[in-house]
Amino acid sequence: MRRREFIAFLGNAAAAWPLAARAQQRERMRRIGALMAMAPEDPQAPIRIAALAQGLQELGWTVGGNVRIDYRWSVGDADRRRHAAELVALSPDVILATSGAIVGALQEVSRSVPIVFVTVIDPVGGGWVASLARPGGNATGFTSYEFSMGGKLLELLKELAPGIKRVAVIRDPSVPAGSGGFAAIQTVAPAFGVELTAIGVRDADEIERGITAFAAGANGGLIVAGPPSSVLPHRNLIIALTNGQRLPTVSTTPVLGGVLSYGANSADQYRRAAGYIDRILKGEKPADLPVQAPTKYELVINLKTAKAIGLDVPPSLLARAD
Predict the structure, then answer these.
(1) 90-101: per-residue pLDDT in tens?
(2) Residue 115 is inside which H or E element, if any?
(3) Three-class DSSP category at 235
(4) Are residues 190 and 61 in the same domain?
């Protein structure tokens, strides 16, 4: 090759190199961590995983192609802390957190790895973000409901079974979402003429003792207030006890059982989380992405459960059910 041609070749190659480098960067496998607040065999697990994958695919990310997701599963404090450390050690580009307690565990390990959370209640009260509009740290995401939803659940329980005079509330007093939700129900309880009883979720024995003792009285109903991550490990026990005691029960999500649920669609939150994950992978910061509330609440009625406990669901509720 003659000298002049060689110099021209070098110049063209140098000009093309940045384009080639950028193309390689776009195709680089990105890494997402996901810490799930459930066991892998939970029936909801594949539904939520599929919703996340679908949301990512719609934005140009293919799991196993240009993005990899490392899942970890936690059903208790020890699992949560251990898996949070494991995921951070993998140096992911972003981590999906599926409960407030998981956000807290991840932030104890790192305040720099970006976090997108779903199905979280009161992230400001939990200390995970500075404000909903300006999170300010390494976490942002999607809330599942506000504390005022507790009052709505009580209203629906009374509409479902007007004769109820006593209401037990299953909640986790060790987290802000549990105590705040119960306080919201306490505020409106006098207007509905009901007496409240709190039942904790420290372990299965506490739940069984609480529900059994409460069911010994007449005209009772039950609210599963959560947060869901604290209640999910005991879901089957709660369903068995409330059905066995023929207690009209309402909750924030169908997966917690009961005759009626009213709340955000959990799978939809995973699809929406894909949008924030996409924006973070493209360079945006969690601190600048506002925390979002649900865009739709669903009223779901389980007629099979209603029949099993001998409850006739009022036509006014059936007409409104999603």
Answers:
(1) 999 999 999 998
(2) strand 115-120
(3) helix
(4) no
